[in-house]
Amino acid sequence: MHRAIREVITARRQLEGGGFQVRRPLPSAGMRRVDPILLIDEMGPADYRPGEAVGAPDHPHRGFETVTYMLDGEFEHRDSAGHAGKLGPGDVQWMTAGRGVVHSELPSQRIMQAGGRVHGFQIWVNLPARLKMTAPRYQEVAATQIPEVVSDDGLARVRVIAGESLGVTARIDTHTPIVYQHWILQPGASVSQALPADHNGLAYVFQGAAEVAGTRLLDGQMGVLGDGNALSLSLPASAEGEAQLLLLGGVPLNESVVQHGPFVMNTRAEIEQAIKDYQMGRMGEIN
Ligand code: CO
Fold first, then answer.
1. Cα 81 to ligand 1 centre (Å)
2. How far is the CA of 106 from the centre of ligand 1 (A)?
């Protein structure tokens, strides 16, 4: 049974703290989350001049995962669990904050000094209550290691960051079943993608306009999927250029969510504990 779109949300460009340009379709008015997906930030695209690029210096997280996917530019990551990495175009970083990390996410020295384009995504994936205090985990997958599949007619291409598509399975290991796919559609493309019936799902178009589950979504629009076990993705042959979108989903946790800034827990008391633990230095520091 094919899914339909049950709600369309239009993201607007806004400035995040520190002056970072984002489009944020989730959360938004009327859509607090698509369980277990908590947040989607499209970073840029922004063209920074020398000395202008901004990022997020040392800050904590607890109770969920941050997933960063770069399309353009470079980011450098350091965290209190001892992980460090540099992400370039097409690279993915899947960080399980679990019981707590402090990390910094900054444009690379090269971009800081010389300027350049930054474009990418950060999404937040919730963890179930039983895993909120799990040990932090860091997975980094280089662009060349992310499976990419092209449809038989050559008109649709998918990069499989998490889950399965067109018979290919992602390398990333997720704590609960998560789908994260980046689709690039050429005019005339038409594919059917399975999405198990027990998953919630959404599509976010960030270039061109695509037909998702029978609804036309424009650049910057997120469509939340209704019930079913598959969906159609297509781009009319008359389209002027390609369309790109993320398809995201997962099995809903169906648990209470209490969020306070960088902490996402199940109860108010757990949030207060997180704040206290951070203030006491129990989430560590970046060395
Ligand atoms: Co962060």
1. 14
2. 10
